[in-house]
Specification:
- The protein is mainly β.
- The protein contains two helices and 20 strands.
- The protein has one domain.
- Helices cover 10% and strands 33% of the residues.
- The protein has a nine-stranded mixed sheet. Strands 3-6-9-11-13-17-16-15 form an eight-stranded mixed sheet. A three-stranded parallel sheet has the order 1-4-7, with no helix packed on it.
- The mean pLDDT is 89.
Length: 214
């Protein structure tokens, strides 16, 4: 068991998995974080109970992060990361500049609430497309991308909602937006733009599928 004291604690890790036999990490009082140390981190908390932990943050590098069986907030930080929340109510956090991340949600429980939170990104900056069995989330003027793997293969790989800074897209509305955007090219790359034709055609769809954030 690893325990933090009172106040805000940061636990810095580079590798952790079931073989390390850490059954409990308890942050104690305060705002407590589990942090990667930069570079390539492999952090697997699937066999660890997390208590009083606000977030798991890989920071820079190409990280592979697996959450616990409880409710986790996961962010890869800069670099191309792979995130898996597993069981529980999980939140994946992404900001522009974080790179090209993959989400393996892998949560078969119908009672779980798993969401993607796009920090500092507005609804008109979000482009959705189907890539084989995966859901791709692109952003104009950026090489960044999120690939939610297995979205079209298994409901357990889907997320319940995608939150932008000015709206929320529920899972039931994803296909409507994907189908509307499929008519146009994906705006992928630092010089990619959404054409005025696309903006005009998509405006009523965006207004209908994105809901105001309460």
């Amino acid at each position: 068991m690893v325990t933090g004291g009172s106040g805000n604690d940061s636990f810095r890790l580079t590798e952790l998995g079931p073989a390390d036999s850490i059954e409990v990490i308890d942050g104690g009082d305060g705002h407590n974080l589990l942090l990667g140390v930069g570079g390539r981190n492999t952090l697997d908390f699937s066999a660890t109970q997390l208590r009083n932990i606000a977030a798991i943050d890989g920071r820079g590098g190409r990280d592979v992060i697996t959450g616990s069986a409880g409710d986790d907030l996961l962010m890869g930080g800069k670099g191309n990361d792979t995130l898996s929340g597993g069981a529980g109510d999980d939140t994946y956090v992404f900001s522009l500049g974080h790179g090209r991340d993959k989400i393996d949600n892998a949560d078969a429980s119908p009672d779980s609430l798993d969401v993607l939170r796009l920090e500092g990104i507005e609804t008109d900056q979000v482009w959705l497309s189907r890539q084989r069995n995966h859901l791709a989330v692109n952003f104009p003027d950026s090489n960044d991308r999120i690939l939610i793997r297995g979205w079209y293969a298994d409901e357990g790989d889907q997320l319940d909602a995608i939150y932008a800074s000015d709206g929320v897209l529920m899972r039931e509305q994803v296909d409507q937006l994907v189908n509307a955007m499929a008519v146009f090219d994906v705006p992928e790359g630092v010089d990619a733009r959404i054409s005025e034709e696309a903006r005009e055609a998509l405006a009523p769809v965006l207004a209908s599928v994105w809901q105001a954030v309460a």
